[in-house]
Each structure stands twice: as structure tokens, then as C-alpha cells.
Amino acid sequence: MKTHVISTALKGHFLRLYQIAFSDDNFDVLEMRMLYRFAEDRGISKEALNDVLLNPSHQTVIPEELSQKVAYLYDLAIMIWADGKVTEDEHIALKKYCIKFGFMEDHIEELTRFLLEKARDGMPLEILLEQIKTM
Amino acid sequence: MSALKDIFTLKKNDTVAGTHTGHDEKQIKLTFFESGYGSSKQAQGNPTVFRACLQNVYMDYKGKCRQNEELQKELRKPYEEEKSRQDTELKKRKTVLGIMEESIRDLENKITSYRHDMVEVKRNPEKYGIEIDKRPKAQFYIGLAVLIPITFYLLVFYISASFSAFFKNFVTTALTSAIFSGQAIAKAMEDGWLTAVFVATIPFAFMGLGYLIHMFQKRKGKWNYVKIILLFMVTFVFDAILAYMIEYKIYEIEKTPSSPPFDLKIALSSVEFWGIIFAGFVVYIIWGLVFDFIMKEYDNFDKIKSFIKTRVEDIKNRERDLLEYDRKLQPIKEEISGIEGKISDLQRTIDGFIFSNKHYLMYHAEYVKGWFLAIADDVPSEKRREELLSRCVEEEKGHLADHQIDNENYEGRLYKLVN
Questions:
Q1: Which residues between 87 and 126 in chain B have a beta carbon less than 8 angstroms from any beta carbon of chain A?
Q2: Which one of A15, B46, B73, B402 has the fewest beta carbons within 10 angstroms of its own beta carbon?
Q3: Helix (H, G, I), strand (E, B), or coil: what is residue B235?
Q4: Which Gene3D superfamilies does the entry link to (chain A) (predicted)?
Q5: Looking at residue B338, what is its pLDDT?
Q6: What is the distance in angstroms between the Cα of A33 and the nearest Cα belonging to chain B?
């Protein structure tokens, strides 16, 4: 199992995702708490998280480009693997993000599984995006 | 597994079927104009009838406004957007509250477990990684009871031995009086106070060596063992020198002209020499061991005490954190109830219907235009016409004032009416 280092870019993506989840009815308060702890455990600073929590939301825009969407979701998958396991809650959260990002609901299960598998294997994002393009 | 392409397909955005209502609006405006014109003609522009007609138009528009889902949807939009913004804020605050309450619970649990630890550590120190004997106190006091007399013994022995070795003039050859000198201090005082200080402080050099052995033993590592061995050797040599000096003095008194000169060989074969070494060095080793032992027992007490002390500190810190959380909690709770109030207010607006002044005034103007035009067309007398028009203008103002839409500042503002 490859251990992943949570880079600054990854953290940035997560904070934006966290922001997005607040304006989504599919995420409830318990999940938001879970995601907070999730981020805290992965080295995202409390200040950054509290900043999201305590400041009024500015319009959080979901990325429009497919590659951008995939990049965000893939980064989340990488973060999920950071502790070497995928919990049920984490899986559900990833699924909800996939739905929020406008992917077909029929394929959500496969999509999340795919992202998690590739993240576990440590496939670089560029190669993943290349694969999607060529398919 | 489906092809990757399928998996990564995005949902198609439904384009909102927005039908243009411009045409309808024009039509409605015309209807209002015609209705105003017709009614005016029938009532010959009567101001009282005009007032009643305006009221009728108002009520009619209100009814239509309420039924017009599309218009309502449009009017509600800003309220719905505001509500979803408030919902987001509420969710954030609730998340904060949840996280804080969780932290408070954790802190409280920690404090309870710390309190428990403070009691439990005395009973079961191993549980907390403190390795100590079961009865540290008894062993400590027994050790102390042994150590004190040995300390006195060492004091007495070294004072007298060093006095004998360095300053005493031998007159008799009895062994006991050779080694042991009952009035060592008093005699040393006679020689001068420096002599007295010298013999009185020499035992502390030995005890200092014993203390060093204990300290080196505490630390791990080969080098420390080497140091301990060196210390033992130094003490032994020191003892041997004392014994040698005493033995030399005795030999000098006893010697006959035929005796060979005193040397180490003679000293090593002498009973007094070994007697002095055993009475000093061996007892010194015993003193060192007992001292080491009771220091360890004392450390054990200390371990439990310092463990309890850290726990007390921990509890204090946690309690401070708790207070801090409590202080932060209250404003968040207030904010939550404030936001909830706003949301339910917005929800009432959304559930109710919204009356648009702006829209109403547009149709109202058409109706009035129709009414006035009919007066202009059908009333021949100019005076009568003027009178009717000015009275109708008054009536119109009154009507607008009745419904609080007379102020121009309000134009374009949305009025919400709750069912």
C-alpha cells in the first residue's frame, strides 16, 4: 500500500469541496462533522477549516471542465486512502460529490470504485486523465 | 465494468424552458386599458364608481398574482436564494456546534479518566508504566534505618583512621588503639583547627564517591560502568594508602635493628593492614549499596507523586479549555437560533404569495389611462370634464394611499403577503 502525502494543492481542493458540501442538501450536519475530522486527521489546519466554517459562504462554483471535476474527485479519493482504509462514510461522501459534480447517477458506484482503485494504486492524475480522454 | 467513457459521462443540463411572457404582458395591459375605458364610458367617468372599480381591479390583480405560479416563482427567487444561503450558514453553525460539543465531551471524559488515574496509580502503578516495588515505603524506611548507623560508623572510622594515618604519634602497639582513636577529634583540635577540619571532612569524600556511584548507575551505557569501576578502584587505593600509612607507623615502632625496611610486601602480609581495609572499604561498599537502594525507593515515591502532579496539571489545562469552549458555545447557539428565525421567516414568505407593486402599478396605470381617455372622449362639457378628471385623480391617489403604494420609493419593491 502506497502512503500518500497530502500536498497543499490537495488540501486546497479539499477545502473547496468542503465549502461546496455546505450548500448541498445531500450532506447533513453529521457528515460535515465527519469531513471536518477527516480533514483534521489528514493535516489540514484547524484555522483553514474554521475559516470555511465561520465565514459566510461566497458562491462556491463547481468546476465545469470534466478534467477539473475529475481532478477534485480524484484528490478526495487520494485523501480517503491516506490512512490506508476506506470507511463506509468516506465512500458515501465521495459518491455524493460525484452526484453533485453532475456525473450520471447510474454509474456513480462504478465511478467511485474506479477513482478509489486508482488512488490506492497511486496512479498519477495526468495518466488517469489521459486514460479517460483516450477511451 | 462499463467503458470509462460511460462512467465519466456528465448529466445533460436541462435547459430551462423559459417562455417569453412579453407578448402576454402586452395583451394584459391592453385588456386593462380596455376595461378601464369601457367601465368609464358606462359610469360616465363617475369618481365614486372609479374608486370602486380601482378596488375591484386591485383585488382582481391580487387574485391573479396569487394564482400565477410562474410569476410567483420569479418573485420568490430572491427569497429562496436567501433562504438557501441561510441554510448553508445554519449548517455551518450546527457543524461548529457539533464539533465543539464533541470536543467538550472528549475533554470531560479525559478529566474523568485523569481523576480516576490519580486514584488508581497508587493501587496499580504498572498500569501507567511506573515500575515500582509493591511496598516502597516500608523498604525505604528499613533501608534508611540501616543507612544512618552505617553513616555514623563510616564517619567515626574514617575520622579516626585518617587521624591515625596522618597525625597520630604511636606510643603503644595495640591494634585497636593503632587504628581506632577515641579522641581523634579532640586530639586533632589540639593540633590545630585545620587538622580537626581535615579529619572531620575526610569521610565525606568517601560518601561523595558513594553518591557518584549511585548517580552513574542511574545512567545506562558502558562508559558509566567503566566510571563506576574506576571509582571503586580509587576508593580502594585510598583505603589501602590509609592502611599502609598506619601499618607503616606501627612497623616503625615495632621494628628491631635487624628488621628489613618497611615495604608493600610487608604491609600486604600484615593482619592490621587487611583489618583496616575491611573495616573501611567493605563497609563503604555496603553503605554505597544501601544508599543506592533507598534512593531508588525514594524515586519510586517520587514517580507516583510526579505522575499525580502531571495529572493535576492536565486536569487544570483541560478545565481551562472547557471554559473556553463554553464561552464560545453561547454566541454560536444564539446565532443558530437567529438564523433559524430568519429561515422560518423566509419560509413563510416563500409559502405565502408575493404581491408585486411594480407589476400592479403597470396595469393600474393602463386602467386609469383607459378611464381618463373615456372621460376625455365622452364628456363634452370642458368644465365638467376638468372637474371629473381632477376628482378622479384624487380618488386614484386615495386608492394608492389605501394600499400603501403611493410612495414612489416603494415602486419596484416586493410586498409579501402572508396567507
A1: 87-89, 91-92, 94-96, 98-99, 102
A2: B73
A3: helix
A4: TerB-like
A5: 95
A6: 6
Name the CA dihedral angle for B104, B107, B111, B112, rounded to a multiple of 10 degrees: 70
**C-alpha to C-alpha distances, B37 to B40, B42, B372, B377, nearest whole angstrom:** 5, 9, 8, 10
Summarised one tens digit per residue, pLDDT across range A105-134 is 888 999 999 999 999 998 888 888 888 877
CA distance A130 to chain B (A): 11
Q: Does the model's ipTM exceed the 0.85 cut?
A: no
> For chain B, what is the mean pLDDT?
82
pLDDT at B221: 80
Do the chains contact at A102 and B96, CB–CB below 8 Å?
Answer: no
Closest among B130, B74, B128, B116 to B353, alpha carbons compared: B74
Contact B2 A66 (CB under 8 A): no
- pTM recorded for the entire structure: 0.61
DSSP H helix total and E strand total for chain B: 14, 2
How many CB atoms sit inside 10 A of residue B205's CB? 12
Q: Which three cell numbers stand for residue B1?
A: 465494468
Q: How would DSSP label each residue in B337-354?
A: HHHHHHHHHHHHHHHSEE
Contact A36 B3 (CB under 8 A): no
Task: Tell me the C-alpha distance between A49 and A19, whole Å.
Answer: 9
* Residue labelled with grid coordinates 603503644: B172
Instruction: Tell me if chain A has a CB within 8 Å of the CB of B342.
Output: no
Contact B355, B62 (CB under 8 A): yes
Contact between chains at A57 and B84 (C-beta distance less than 8 A): no
* pLDDT 10s digits, B276-335: 888 888 888 888 888 888 888 888 777 888 888 999 999 999 999 999 999 999 999 999
As a whole number of Å, the CA-based R_g of chain A is 14
pLDDT digits (tens, 9 = 90+) for B235-259: 888 888 888 888 888 787 777 777 7
